[in-house]
Amino acid sequence: MNLKNNKKGVLRGSFTIQSKILAVCLSLALGITMVSLILSYYTEINSYRKIAESYLTQYIRFADQNFDNMIGEARKISLSIAVSNDMIYPILNNELTSEVSYDRFLQKKRITNFLSGLMTQKEYIADIMIVTRNGSVYQASQDLIVRKDLQEEDIQIALRSERAGIIYDRKKNSVIYCWPIYYKNEIKATGMINLKYDFLVDAYNMEPLRTSTVIITIPEDTVFYSNRGDEKETAHILQMIGKKEKDTGYIKINGEKQYYIRNKSGTGFMSISVLIPYRVLSKDAEKLKLKFIIIGFCAAAAAVICSVFLSRKLCRNLKQLSNNMEEIRQGNMEVRVSVQTRDEIGILADTFNRMMDQIAKLMIEIKEKEIVKKEAEQKFLDAQIEPHFLYNSINSIQYVAHMRGEEEIERVAIALSELFRSVLSNKREFITLWEEKEYIDNYILIERFKYTRDFSLIWDVEEELWAYQIPKLLLQPIVENALIHGIADKEEGVINIKVYRDENAVVVKILDNGKGIARNRLQELQEGIYKNKKSRFRRVGISNVFERIKLLFGEEYGGNIYSYQNTFTCIELTLPLYVEQYL
User: In angstroms, rounded to a whole number, what is the distance separating the alpha carbons of residues 517 and 510?
Assistant: First the structure.
């Protein structure tokens, strides 16, 4: 239960690999989708705007062309009248006399019909007139022109004009195209074409420009047409546009972004300035935005679905590996991962299975070593046959020897009693090298009583190593073996115990100058077969000492035997320099 809760706590505090892959996939997919949509959106918006700009520019040019065509037609009519000498000159001659006759009536009628013919199918022309210096009026329409009408300001300006041009009366919205008519190098009459103002500006009032500001100016910056009622605002707009170098572009008027178009008519008679609000150019943006939002939503949904599918597929084997590891974490060491893919997860699963097989093998080895260790410890404990009874018996022997004056027996009994006391009272598994020396010295004192030949025990130890911790009674079996099988039958036998540091290890050598070991016997000992059973100390053989070291410190530590028959035997032990971590 604790393991499950712990796992849940770990998952709450961190993201799983699947969630990370999902997050990365979503981020990339959504990021690319959003960037693409935004770029496409603004590209489309710019495209729509440019199309609108182009369309409106073309329409304005069309309207200008239409205006120019009407003015051009008026000029053509004036030229037609000017070159019709047979029609015009007679009335100019008649102007020299005031005689009223039937011929003059017919002549006037012929002129009227001629002018009417020129005006046919020209809806933008209200009237065509010829006014002589004597005040005679010849006109195409049926509207009667009286002398009072000739006093109008625009008519008077036209009559005084010495060149062809357009007269515009802003108050009446009257547009007159006039030209002088010469006879014998003198101005004898004035031709006038009265243009319909509404027809001239009608093209600028149609749908494409109804939401725009249109201002038409004629020479001397006179405002010919403006759909803005405020004259000051109109003047301000003309001033702002006039500062621009380009004929098209963007400008801010009263804080609103607008697209301006400035165009001069082909005839040079007028200039047009148009302001189109940016929102008008971008009116399709909202529809386009909605379309892109729907596309973005669908793309995002597809990205989420694909990301979830891919992340699950990618992490399926990894999740299985994680679940199998959790089972092992809960104690099921028999679990193995069954992933057949040849990718990194498959390699990881195969490595994991190999590792678990190795762990299982190591666990078996550890169990076997534990059994061996327990057997060795049991044998050591079995060797202590009623130790307290023996200890008390030895004390009794010591007391009797003392009472009878047997000093040598008393010394041996004291040494043996001290050895038993030390072993029984010291429950620690590790003791100092100095304490081990005391055990061995007591043992040697006891053995000297048994042997008739004298022998020596020499300690060669680096001073700081006397406090070095070693397993209790580690050296005693080796010293016992050297004494019994090495120097027991030798005169002046020597056992030399040397302890020194060698890099990160402590080396202990027990060397004797005894009879040595035959080669085949040495091989048996090196294989761990040889075991001595002569005493309770000898029951723990040399091979057991080596095995004990490996069990305590690991396979890199242990011992070795070197010997040459009839010359020497050396038992070498290798121990870790720092044993605190094993205590």
Answer: 15
Is 478 in contact with 442 (CB distance < 8 Å)?
no
Helix axes 344-383, 285-329, angle to 10 degrees: 20
Paired strand residues for 129: 139, 192
Q: Determine contact, residues 68/265, Cβ cutoff 8 Å.
A: yes
Q: What is the pLDDT of residue 509?
A: 96
Task: Dig out the tokens for 271 from the structure.
Answer: 């200039």
pLDDT single digits (tens) 302-355: 877 887 777 777 777 777 777 778 887 887 777 787 777 777 777 877 888 888
Residue ranges, CATH 3.30.565.10, the chain? 367-582
DSSP conformation class of 239: H
**Sign of the dihedral defined by the CA atoms of residues 510, 514, 519, 522, in that order:** negative
Most confident of 32-36, 53-57, 232-236: 232-236
CATH architecture of the region 367-582: 2-Layer Sandwich (3.30)
Residue positions counted in the chain: 583
User: What does the block give as tokens for 319?
Assistant: 């999740």
For the beta carbon of residue 402, count every other beta carbon within 10 angstroms.
Answer: 14
* Helix/strand/coil percentages in the chain, nearest 5: 55, 20, 25
CATH 3.30.450.20 segments of the chain:
84-200, 211-283
Largest CA distance in the chain: 200
Structure tokens at 456: 């020596």
The burial class, CB within 10 Å (0-12 / 13-18 / 19+), for 255 is: exposed
DSSP code of 515?
Answer: S
Instruction: Indicate if the alpha-carbon torsion angle 323, 324, 328, 334 is positive or negative.
Output: positive
Helix, strand or coil for residue 565? coil
pLDDT above 90 for 497: yes
Give CA separation, 507 vs 435, 502, 527, 570, in Å: 18, 7, 21, 12
Query: Exposed/middle/buried for 16, CB within 10 Å: 0-12, 13-18, 19+?
Result: middle
CATH class of 211-283: alpha beta
How many other C-beta atoms are found inside a 10 Å radius of the C-beta of residue 342?
9
Sheet holding 271-277, edge to edge: 222-226, 213-218, 271-277, 256-264, 248-253
Residue 91 has pLDDT above 80, yes or no: no
Q: How far is CA 13 from CA 16, 88, 207, in A?
A: 10, 106, 64
Architecture, CATH, for domain 84-200: 2-Layer Sandwich (3.30)
Q: Cβ–Cβ contacts within 10 Å for residue 480, how many?
A: 21
Provide the residue type at 436 as one letter. Answer: E
Mean pLDDT score, 15-40: 75
Q: What is the identity of the amino acid at 45?
A: I
The interaxial angle of helices 85-94 and 17-83, nearest 10 deg, is 50
Phi, psi of 138 (to 5 degrees): -115, 120
> Which residues are registered as beta bridge partners of 130?
138, 191
Q: Which residues contact 536 (CB under 8 A, 6 or more apart)?
A: 383, 384, 385
Q: Region 388-409: what's the mean pLDDT?
A: 63
- Which H or E run includes 508? strand 505-512
pTM of the model: 0.45
Whether the CB-CB separation of 62 and 263 falls below 8 Å is answered with no
Q: Is 187 within 8 Å of 133 (Cβ atoms)?
A: yes
